[in-house]
């Protein structure tokens, strides 16, 4: 049975803070990974401690993946494809429509523009409520 925990792949510190504030205030479990790589065909995500870890898709309900990961060895499109191979649903989150489109092609079932996500945060909407509607 899948967990209710969210997996977040995001390299922007300000976005981490926003996501963390909203999800913690709702009592939602989550893990943030700012970077990812594929080594010998295996997805490794780098946690906030700098440790590269493999993930078990059954530990998560859904993944939020940024399309442009500046500091990452693997971009959001590649991470999306790898997470889908593991069976984890992915929501693409990018400021660029073309990246969201590429992530949909890689297997994401939904795309959210970052500016829309920001507006939701600023208006006090909880991202978790939105995710539960689409997951």
Task: Describe, in plain words, how this protein is organized in 3D.
This protein is an alpha/beta fold. It has a single domain (6-134), classed as Rossmann fold. 36% of the residues lie in helices and 25% in strands. The protein contains five helices and eight strands; from the N terminus they run E-H-E-E-E-E-E-H-E-H-E-H-H. The protein is globular.
Short description:
The chain is α/β, with parallel strands linked by helices and 135 residues long.
Measured on Cα atoms, how large is the radius of gyration?
13 Å
Q: Look at the structure and give the mean pLDDT.
A: 82
Structural class of the secondary structure composition?
A: alpha/beta
CATH topology: Rossmann fold
Percent of residues in helices comes to 25-40%
Q: What would you call the shape? A: globular
């Amino acid at each position: 049975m899948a967990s209710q925990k969210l997996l977040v792949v995001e390299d922007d510190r300000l976005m981490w803070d926003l996501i963390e504030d909203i999800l913690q205030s709702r009592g939602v479990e989550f893990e943030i990974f700012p970077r990812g790589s594929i080594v010998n065909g295996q997805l490794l995500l780098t946690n906030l401690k700098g440790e590269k870890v493999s993930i078990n898709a059954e530990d998560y309900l859904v993944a939020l993946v940024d399309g442009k990961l500046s500091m990452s060895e693997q971009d959001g499109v590649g991470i999306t494809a790898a997470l889908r191979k593991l069976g984890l649903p992915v929501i693409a989150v990018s400021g660029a429509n073309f990246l969201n489109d590429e992530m949909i092609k890689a297997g994401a079932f939904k795309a959210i523009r970052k500016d829309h996500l920001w507006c939701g945060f600023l208006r006090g909407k909880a991202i978790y409520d939105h995710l539960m509607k689409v997951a």
